[in-house]
Amino acid sequence: LLNKGNTIIDTYKTILDGNENALKILDAIDNLGFLPILAEIDNNLVDAQGNPAYAAYNTDTNSIIVNADEFAKNSIFWGITRLVHESLHQNLNNKYTRKEALDKLRPIYEAYKKYVEENHPNDTSYTKFLNIRADESINLEEFIVESLTNGELIEHLNNISADGTPLNKTENKSLLRQFLDIIIDILGIEVNKDSLLERELELLNNI
To answer: Which of 117, 106, 126 is nearest to 178 (CA)?
Structure first.
């Protein structure tokens, strides 16, 4: 379908036709600007080690490239998650400047790092999300992208307060909620009073 020039959202709406719950999830992701509009197909896509790659963001052409053969081996929502992952890389490079975007998000990483070092220094389920890459900027970008596409890290963030301490659900905003606030700002979305998005963020803050 993508090879025929269809947008990503239209492609997945065709695939998910009749599955109302899945379509609602898809619309929510799209409304937040987390899906790219188009993607290029390259079934010979490989990573830096020469292994088959699922998808990639090309900073030189500002395009997202998809290996359709690899996508076909996995579930529909696995594919959507990969596209969201690469779209976040694209957005971080397009909204403001990459440095401005990362500077806004750096406190989230630092708060997470503080929490892990003080509470779970030897637990790999937490520490594996620190120092993902050697380069500081790339490491921060990968952490941010994982924060919206990796269920395990999302769960961690939702149980840590915004100041990097264990979450008191009656008093603190979660690190996940603070992170979403910043992402929405970076994407240039103005949260309208009494909108469904405002209600969703309120609900997240009460989780």
So the answer is: 106
Q: What distance in Å separates the CA atoms of residue 131 and residue 97, rounded to the nearest whole number?
A: 23
For residue 111, which of 172, 176, 164 has the smallest C-alpha distance?
A: 164
Tell me how far CA of residue 89 lies from CA of 34, 80, 147, 193, 203, in angstroms.
10, 14, 12, 29, 27
Helices 20-31/8-15 angle, 10° precision: 170
CB contact at 8 A, 174 and 207:
yes
**3-state DSSP assignment of residue 130:** coil
Residues 114 and 162: their CA atoms lie apart, in Å, by 11
Is this model's pTM higher than 0.85 or not? no
CA-CA distance, 140 to 146, in Å (whole number)?
10
Q: 51 exposed, middle or buried (CB, 10 Å; 0-12, 13-18, 19+)?
A: exposed
pLDDT tens string 28-57 = 777 767 788 888 889 999 988 888 899 998
**Residues forming beta bridges with residue 52, ordered by sequence position:** 46
